[in-house]
Amino acid sequence: MITDTPAPRAILHEVFGYEQFRGPQAAIVDHVIGGGDALVLMPTGGGKSLCYQIPAIARQRAGHGVAIVVSPLIALMHDQVGALHEAGVDAAFLNSTLSGEEANAVEKRMLSGEVTLLYAAPERVTTPRFLAQLDSLQERGLLSLFAIDEAHCVSQWGHDFRPEYRALTVLHERFAGVPRIALTATADAITREDIVERLQLEEAQQFVSSFDRPNISYTIVEKKEATTQLLRFIEREHEGEAGIVYCQSRKRVEEIAQTLVNEGVSALPYHAGLDAQVRQANQDRFLREDGIVMVATIAFGMGIDKPDVRFVAHLDMPKNIEGYYQETGRAGRDGMPAAAWMAYGLQDVVNQRRMIDESPAGEDYKQVMRGKLDALLTLAEAADCRRVRLLGYFGEASTPCGNCDNCLTPPTVWDGTDAARKLLSTIYRVQQQSGISFGAGHIMDILRGKATEKVSQFGHQSLTTFGIGAAFSEVQLRGVLRQLIATGALAVDAQAFNTLKLTEASRGVLKGETQVLLRESVSLPPERRGRTGSRSGATPSAVAASLTTEGVARYAALKAWRAEVARAHNLPAYVIFHDATLAAIAAMAPQTLADLRDISGIGASKLEKYGEEVLRVVLLD
Ligand code: ADP
Ligand code: ZN
After folding, report:
1. 111, 181, 281, 323 - which has most CB atoms within 10 Å?
2. What is the CA radius of gyration of the chain?
3. Which residues pair with 413 in a beta bridge?
4. Is the dihedral of CA 36, 41, 46, 48 positive or negative?
5. Residues 122, 70: contact at Cβ < 8 Å?
6. Residue 293 burial class via C-beta count within 10 angstroms: exposed 0-12, middle 13-18, buried 19 and up
7. Which residue, among 295, 283, 281, 323, has the nearest Cα to 234 in the 3D structure?
8. Ligand closest to the CA atom of residue 398
9. Is the distance from the beta carbon of residue 21 to the nearest atom of ligand 1 less than 6 Å?
10. Rounded distance, CA 447 to CA 519, Å?
11. 214-231: per-residue pLDDT in tens?
12. 150 close to 160: Cβ distance less than 8 angstroms
């Protein structure tokens, strides 16, 4: 029976315990409840889930049946569905972790139209069997909407291309009248166009939120001793807190995780080469325990919605800004202060360029990838506000943020134009004289006038540029080299022992037309003296910072209670209640259920399930 659609705000309050919609949520929810298609671009932590969950609940209550949620990661469906159950919503998933019997039971409930949200991966949704079941639902008016999560997976320009997503065009073709909402946290202009085209969303209304994540502070440091730099960053700023450290290779993941463990950090490795069970166990621990640092390749992270990740560190540079922004976006979903930290050096530039050059892709594709890499390199070399540049990349204008390294400690900039000209002309002359190219080390030796064996072997001390760069330090020249390579004014030939070659763009620099401005290199911060032995709870968490002594005690008691409940339900703690909700309870010291009802994050279902227990925990101390 079709009834009036209930008011979305009533659902927001009753089911999720939230007072107000955030940003464009209200408009999106109204549009989808009304049957419209939508493309939602909202940063991580912006609140995308509610954009389809509330329409699904509203449409189910009005008699429209089941919403199908297409989600790429089987491993995370369990927690997502668990969170909905906690809120009292009838949700289910269909994937290979279910036994045949369990899957049959879910299918039966789905076909009866009683499930509100059904999660499945794209490869399942597009099977003939599943499509036939959807036909049956639609014939009876019980197919309420499609939500396509992580929609950028459909695009080869995105950073998580999944060919299975391409087959999702069938949804539009076969179920034309059913509203579709596609969501992603990251898409630059070219990826966005691709999503629209691939998913046939030309008619969909686009809802583009600001991509700014003001609570994340961005820092990019020059890579020196990367591991030491990372350790100091964690020790100084994030002791005992949850974080993710991204590395390029599996081997490096293993090494760094071990080093961190040796230094007393609770770190775990995660990469595609690990045994599936170990990988799953490590992910579970990261989600369920407090203060774990996950050292991982990019295989880790999509769909990780742990809200209290306090930092994301990159020990190696990602491929492009989209990847960087998506990965750093996993920090601070709860809106509390969080950090994005990256160490970047010459080797990163060389590696990333080489990977593009050596990839089997066509030249057009490589050209796009080079352009994207260049944008990231420019960000890394920048001496002005990182956030302005990041947002600029996504087409958003802004003013200096006051919460990035360059805003907080403006770097000293030196004019490297002269050094760059001398470097390039040395490369030119060496090539002229010897007919072959050389690597960075030899070129710098000539510039700085070092009479090495190689220099005399090739007679390079007779070059007019021999020794003309003696005034520059090696660190300075390396900086110049890195920036020349980063901006394409110099190329590294990976096929020929990483030798240096001039490019079209070298000319402008050689002629003095292109100015080369560089950040002054900063030395490593000194090691912290008197390192504390204990890492447990040394720093009070940002969430609990404003509590009184009794409040802190209540907060601790509530956390212990939550950990027990989470374990009993086999769910991450934040699915039961967020830290912020526990802190609000601790601060208020509620006496009655009615007091509890007003706290953000406590909906009707949780109030009924946990209200009495929470009151008891709070009153005990
Ligand atoms: P995204 O998928 O966009 O990264 P989520 O849907 O996971 O973000 O939401 C991020 C967090 O914000 C979640 O913990 C969610 O419960 C919370 N949230 C979303 N919308 C609201 C709201 N209107 N009021 C309060 N909290 C909200
Ligand atoms: Zn800034």
Report:
1. 181
2. 27
3. 519
4. positive
5. yes
6. buried
7. 295
8. 2
9. yes
10. 21
11. 999 999 998 989 999 999
12. yes
Give CA angle at 289 (304, 75), nearest 5°.
35
Cβ-contact 377, 484 below 8 angstroms:
no
169, two tokens: 């065009």
Closest among 488, 482, 489, 491 to 509, alpha carbons compared? 489
Q: Which of 462-466, 528-532, 546-550 has the lowest mean pLDDT?
A: 528-532
How close are the terminal C-alpha atoms of the chain, in Å? Answer: 50
pLDDT in tens, 551-603: 989 998 998 899 899 989 888 888 999 888 998 999 999 999 999 998 999 99
Enter the tokens of residue 29: 């929810």
Residue nearest to atom 24 of ligand 1 (CA): 18
Beta-carbon contacts of residue 603 (< 8 Å; ≥ 6 apart): 13, 14, 15, 16, 17, 87, 88
Query: How far does CA 191 lie from the centroid of its chain?
Result: 16
What ligand 1 atom has the least distance to the C-alpha of 16?
16
Helix 128-139 crosses helix 100-111 at what angle (to 10 degrees)? Answer: 30
Closest CA to 386 of 499, 476, 519: 519
* Side-chain-facing half-sphere of 610: CA atoms under 13 Å: 27
Which of 11, 12, 16 gets mutated to test ligand 1 (max ligand atoms within 8 A of its CB)?
A: 16
Q: Which ligand is nearest to the CA of 584?
A: 1
Closest ligand 1 atom, residue 49 Cα: 6
Angle between helices 604-620 and 8-16 (to 10 degrees): 40
Answer positive or negative: Cα dihedral of 39, 299, 329, 547.
positive
